[in-house]
Amino acid sequence: SFAYFTIKDRLPQILTRVIDTLHRHKNEFFEEHGEKGVEAEKRAISFLSKLRNELQTDKPVTPLEDELPDAALWNQYLDYQRNLASGNGEPSWFQSPWLYVECYMYRRIHAALAQNPPIDNFDVFKEGKAQNFFESQEAIIALCTYFQELLKNIKDLDEKQLQEELFKLLQVSLWGNKCDLSFSAGEDSSQKSSPLQSLENMIPYMLVNDMEKVWLLLVNTKKENTEKSNVRVDIILDNAGFELVSDLVLADFLLSSKLADEVHFHGKSIPWYVSDTTKRDFNWTLKQLQAANHMWMSRCGINWEGNLKKGVWVYRDHMFWTLPHAFSSMAEVAPDLYADLQKSNLLLFKGDLNYRKLTGDRKWEYTVLFHQALNKFHPAPLCSLRTLKSDTQVGLKPGQGEHIQASEPEWMVSGKYGVVQFDAAV
């Protein structure tokens, strides 16, 4: 399965890159922290080399030994996996659910640094994320320019035109999800061309297109909410770099078109899956945009910083997003987060990992309904914007998956296909 190749090839590659990154920063650690920095770097590398060996030789998954706030939840989850194994011995790297061991690896990478001050705040994936941003510069300029031009006459657009613009920006945000560094094991995955020019050609690759449902939900909510509270949209973020910029443009459009009154962004509280967005990445991106020597890029950055200051944009992270649990257990494991999401009018889940967690990462029949695969996770109406990079997919028409499979055996893992898949939560 694709899971097997991920554990066998991709994860050790990612670990090797992390070790390499720490090696390369040795002088920087020395300059900043003296001998203590170098010692910490050596300890972290030794911890990670041991981890890589455990992975490659299919050793049992071991409990976390650090004192970080989520360690107890991880160790409870390991007990749960042991009970699932029903006498097959200890869960090990190749004998466990893919989602679990992949998340576990990133949590152990975090522990390798967190347990080794003074380099405990070093993000081993930071350079890759920055590089993705800079290499996607042309696409970012094209998108910011398009959007700032759109803002000039947004008040004059009729409903049909607003709908067209929403659909465009939803698609840019969807296909922005191709820029994923964990998928390419950290190789370049930047967006080179203007993302708006290729949208027409991408339509055939959208396996599920529920954009109309998203539009109707937003328009009807707005009409119903004339007197009442604010219309709130939440975006559960995926990758930093170009994809994040595409999400920010979509968020700004929702506000500027008055389809929403506030947007809440949810990021990761620790570096995750190579290119996932942390608070540091979020703030760094706004700073880079503001400082850009391109008029429309810096305008976007300045406006977006303003949205945060005014409180119409809110950024938050929660430990739950970096646990191995499927979202169906959120109400039990993180009731505070579930209660917060229930206040939203629409949840937009970006990317493949969120999709895997929405559907429990199971090998479903393609025609199983999305609503069913969510396994009672319905805090609010939700929509997944996801390009396929793992072999789980639901909600397809009869024969649709088999038809593509016949000509493209790799269709589920190539990132070439995408879905905009909606669930009304009722």
UniProtKB/TrEMBL annotation:
It comes from the Eukaryota. GO terms for molecular function: metal ion binding; phosphatase activity; protein carboxyl O-methyltransferase activity. InterPro entries: ARMT-1-like_metal-bd_sf, ARMT1, ARMT1-like_metal-bd. Its cofactor is Mn(2+); Ni(2+). Belongs to the damage-control phosphatase family. Sugar phosphate phosphatase III subfamily. GO terms for biological process: DNA damage response; methylation. GO terms for cellular component: nucleus. It catalyses: beta-D-fructose 6-phosphate = dihydroxyacetone + D-glyceraldehyde 3-phosphate; L-glutamyl-[protein] + S-adenosyl-L-methionine = [protein]-L-glutamate 5-O-methyl ester + S-adenosyl-L-homocysteine; beta-D-fructose 1-phosphate + H2O = D-fructose + phosphate. The keyword Membrane does not apply. This is Sugar phosphate phosphatase. Subfamily III proteins have a conserved RTxK motif about 40-50 residues from the C-terminus; the threonine may be replaced by serine or cysteine. Residues 6-403 form the Damage-control phosphatase ARMT1-like metal-binding domain. The keyword Amino-acid biosynthesis does not apply.
